[in-house]
Design a protein that fits this description.
It contains 20 helices and 28 strands. The chain has 626 residues and is of the alpha/beta class. It has an 8-stranded parallel barrel. The protein has an 8-stranded parallel beta barrel with strand order 15-16-17-18-19-20-21-27, surrounded by 4 helices. Strands 9-22-25-24-23-10-11 form a 7-stranded antiparallel sheet. Strand 10 and strand 11 form a beta hairpin. Helix 1 runs parallel beside helix 9. The longest helix is centred in the middle third of the chain and has 20 residues. The two termini are 48 Å apart.
Length: 626
Amino acid sequence: MARYFNNKPVELLAPAGNFEIFKGIINLGCDAVYFGGKNLNMRLHRKDYNFTDQELSEAVRMARALGKKAYITVNNLYNDQELGQLKEFLLLLHDIKPDALIVQDFSVIELIKEMSLKLPVHASVMMNIHNLQSMYALQELGVTRVVLSREAPLTYGKYLAARTNLELEYFVHGDMCIAHGGQCLYSGMLFGQSSNRGRCLKPCRWGYQIHHGGKDYPAQFPLAVKDMYMYENIPELIDGGITSFKIEGRMRDVDYLTMIINAYGDGIDRYIEDPLDYDRRMEAVKLYENRKRDTSAAYAFGRPGLKNINTRYEGTGTLFSSGKVFSTATEERETSKERLEKIRTLLKEQAAGKKGKANLTVKVNNLCQAKICLDLKADAIYLSGDVFLPDKPFSGKEIKELIKEKGDTAIYLGMPHMTFDIQMEEYGQLLSSHIPVDGLLATNIGGIRTFRDRELIGDYPLNILNNNTAAFYIKQGLKRFTITPEATLPETISIINKMAGRAELIVHGSPTVMYMEHDLYDNVKQAGNGLLYLTDEAGFNHPVYKDRYGRNHMLLYKNICYLPILKELYQAGLRNFRIEACHLKEEELARTIAAYRQALNNMDDCEAIYEELAEGGSWTLGSFAL
C-alpha cells in the first residue's frame, strides 16, 4: 500500500516484537513494519521476543506479498568479538532482501560496502542526527533515510528535508528516553547492560529527590519522561517533511499495537481524503484511556520542560506488562584490590614490549583550569564545547592568550555534544579569524565532515566500540579517537591491540553519563549558581551540571581512577591517557595532573602515587569493574 499527500509519500511504520505479533498487525493499516533478529539489535531483554532467521525471511516475504515494506533492525553497537557474527547475519539479510536495515554503528555500513552487499540503510535514532552536515555525510555513504533525533523540533525537520534528498523518519507514538540518542552511558557503566546495546536497565526510571542550594525538592521520578503522542498532529508531521511516522513498541502486545496502528492509519487516511474537514481528535479519548504512561508531544514543538515528566504507573520504573522493575539504585563499584589484580593480570598478558611517548590529555571547563594544565606540562588540552555554568564559553581572546603561553602543549577546541548548524557556523567563523588552535575535538560525523581539513580528535560521544568503526572514523579524517567509556576491559584491550597509537582512554574523572535536553533545574524554585544533585533511593548523590546551551550533564558521583593500572595499560600499548576534568576544583585538578604526570614518567611508582592521591577519596573503575 502507499499513501501520498500532495505527491509526498506518507508511511505509517509499525513495530513487531516477535513473529506472532507481526502476523497480528501486518494486515492492519500500516505501510511498513520493523523488527529484529534474535541478536544484534536494540531489544534483547526477553527471549520470547525477536525473530529467528527463518521468521525474518518469512516476514519479509509476507510484507512484500501485501505491498508493504519490511525493515530489519541491526541497530546495536558492536564489539570486535561480535563482528564475525555480524558478517554472517549481513550475508543472511542480503539473501532475505529486506527493504532496509536500521543501523546505529558505522561498522555495519563499512561491512556492507566491504562485502559488496545490496542492503539499503536507514540511520537509527541512536546515531543522534541533528545537523545538516551529518545528513550530507550519511547521504555520501549511501544512507537513504534518517530517523531524526528525538529532540529535533518539526521545524528543524522541515529545514533538513528541504536541503537533502534523504527521507526523514520521526517517532510519533510510544516510549521515549530522557537522554539524547546514543548519549546515555550509565546503565552500561554501572551494570554492564548498555542502553546503546539493547539492554538498558533504566536508571532514569529510579525515584530521585532533587537537592540544590542546601534545599531538597520533592520530584518523585524527575527523569521519567512521558510517552510520545502525535496523533493530533498528523498535519504538522506532514508539513514538517516527515516521510515515515514511526510507532515505538517492539515490547508491546498485539492488542495495544492494533489500537495504535488503527488510530494513526485511520487519521492519516482521513486527512489525505479531506484535509479541510479533518477531525484531529476522533480517536484521542480512546488513546488517552488506554495509554501506558501519560503522553506528550515531547520536543516536536519546542522544549516541553516539566510537562514532559511522567508519574503514571510505568514512570516509576516498573514494567507495565509484568510489574517487575528494570533495576534499583545501585552503588558505583568501589576500586578493590582484588579487581585491580585481575585487571593487571589481563593487561600483562597483552604486554606489547613497544616503547613510545605516553601522552597526557585533559579536558577543561575554563581558562584557569587550562593554565593549570600548561603549568603542569599536559601534552594536550581540550577546551570544552559544553562549558558547565557558571563558567562562560572560551572566548577568542582567551584562546589566543592560551596559545601564546602553550609551549609544547597542543590546544584543541572542543565541539558540543549536540552541534547544530548554528554552532557549525560559529566554529567556522572563529577558526577563520586566524586562531591557530592545533585542532578540534569532534563529537559527531557532521563536525568531522565540516572541519576535515583540520587536525581532528574523536571524542567519546562517537561511541567507538570496535576496530572497524575506529578505522571508519580515521578514514573520515580523525587523527585519533576516544574509546567509549562503556567499553569493558576485554573490549578496550581488543581496540588497543590494533589501534594503540590512535586510541585514547579516559583514565580519570567522569564523562557525561546522561546527556539531556531536559533541564532538571526547572524543578528548582529559586535557581542560583549551586550544583544540582539527584539523590537516588539508596542515598547516592548524582551531580547534574547545566551547560551554556541549557542542556544537562549527569556525571558519575565517583571519579574514574585508572592510576594504579597505568603501567599495565601502557605496556599493553595505550599511549594517550585522558583526564575528564571539567567538574574538578582547581586544587584537585592540579593534584590530579601532577600525580598522572609523575606516574607516566615513573611507571613503577603508580601504586604508591595512587595511594597518596586516593587518600580519603572514593573512586571507581567504571566499566573495568565489570
